[in-house]
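Risk register update: the risk of archive-format incompatibility is retired. Evidence:
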Amino acid sequence: MLKITDLHKTFHPGTVNAKKALNGLSLTLNEGDFVTVIGGNGAGKSTMLNAIAGVFVPDEGTIEIDGVDVTNIPEYKRAKYLGRVFQDPMMGTAPDMEIAENLAIARRRGTRRHLLWGLPKAERESYREVLRELGLGLEDRLSSKVGLLSGGQRQAVTLLMATINKPKLLLLDEHTAALDPKTAAKVLEITDRIVQDNHLTTIMITHNMRDAIKHGNRLIMLHEGRVIIDVSGEEKQKLTVEDLLAMFARASGDEFSHDRSILS
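Archived output:
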């Protein structure tokens, strides 16, 4: 479903501020893979996600989604393949619009738009059903402005918006990092359910090593713009944070220095 081949990206090339963010990154995801991604500051995690989303064109390498080479396709055209949830709960939604209206906009992504006087009753009822499955009581708040929701509620709605059309690839960019631990756990529970129920191919960046181990069927670690650890299946299930730190030290010849990952 995703094939990244020998991706390179340097920001501010030829200047004193030159930064090599991706350094020959290669990665292949099969349909239905749920991959968690960890790495220290500057490892290339968000740069990789932005490259997949089309925020910039890589210097070298290719990106294919479901067999389609999207390397040079602009971000707005690539959006039809992707669902994305950002770290900031304020992004990804229209805060001054109702929950139902936000979901309606998401459902119509990539289709020809036309004007309607309100939403059809059947459509509103379908939104009520998917919101009920979240277990947050939002099914009775279809007319509430999204900007009035808590951070966790808003991220849950954003997850629904990102997956309502079953994208070929779901990108989660530290989508629980701004939430308190209890709320983050609830959003991750909802994430697992949505991904599994819809068999979505997913990449989830996280700073929390325990979350990276607990969720998904595969874990990769980036360092200096490339993959240095890639574990899945039974090996991943048996991992501990200590195992990961030791694997990182062996693969990179360095110590992992991202305190947030270790302490979370």
